[in-house]
Amino acid sequence: MAAMAWQTTGDVTEFLAAAGPYLRRERARNTVILSVTETMRVNAAATPRASAAPAGPAARTAPAGPADQAAARPLLGWWSDPVGAVAGAFMHTPPFPVVLTAVDPEAAAELAAVTMAGRPVGGVNAYPEVAEAFADGWRNRNRGGRADVYRRQRLYRLAELVWPDPAPDGAARLARAGDARLTAGWFAAFAAEVDDMGKGEDQSAAARQKISHGGVTVWEAGGEPVAIACNTLPVDGMARIGPVYTPPERRGHGYASAATAAASQRLLDAGAEEVVLYTDLANPVSNSIYQRIGYRPVEDRVVLAFSAD
User: Fold this and answer.
1) 157-299, CATH topology level
2) pLDDT in tens, 270-297
């Protein structure tokens, strides 16, 4: 029998060959890892090194040494049980938190304490008990430190789409190349508003990439864009909505709900079997909006942020 152990790689093809079947068995629950690695795989410009570590301030200020450069690149891995079957997986794309699937808490602690040694780990995104075990391993490795709740998230899955009634003024359309600057600006505003760990990054490349695969739905009213609802590349019949953004001065008219419904319908029409999204549990408005248009809760996750204090 094989020993239980984490195996890691920077090669997305190798990762998906080993962990892909495991991840796809629970494709909604593993939506983040599946969607990010799908982008790595299909986007010619998104190699394993560049796919999820945005080109922006964090990249420009990274230490120049070879070891530091390697530690800043995306790392993927899977956990094998005693008979060699994959029983867990993770993705780390600095400066973002480690994203970890359901896994034995001891495996989570080992990942933080041993496997991730030498990497800049700023936090973890996992189920609460797994996140706490990972945090314990991180503290053991660093001989102390803090792990604070950064965000509590809820995963929703679309059951039956219900269009807003009454519908707001305007109509939906797909974003075009000319919308890239507006989209990048709204991505940046969204990241700043929700205090995303990647805030401050240049969002131009992310906006162009989303638009290139038809992943940005614009709600237009009075001849002007008033909201966007984005989606990931579909993978194995599943796609995730996000981000959804309406500028503050345009809120209160139902534009975000309509844009989300339009993006969801387009994904269903294209053959998606599961459409999912995450919400911040601290935002009751977004949670109620998505439930009104047909999204139902699946599970909760927590993001912990680490600090040396």
Assistant:
1) Aminopeptidase (3.40.630)
2) 999 999 999 999 999 999 999 999 999 9
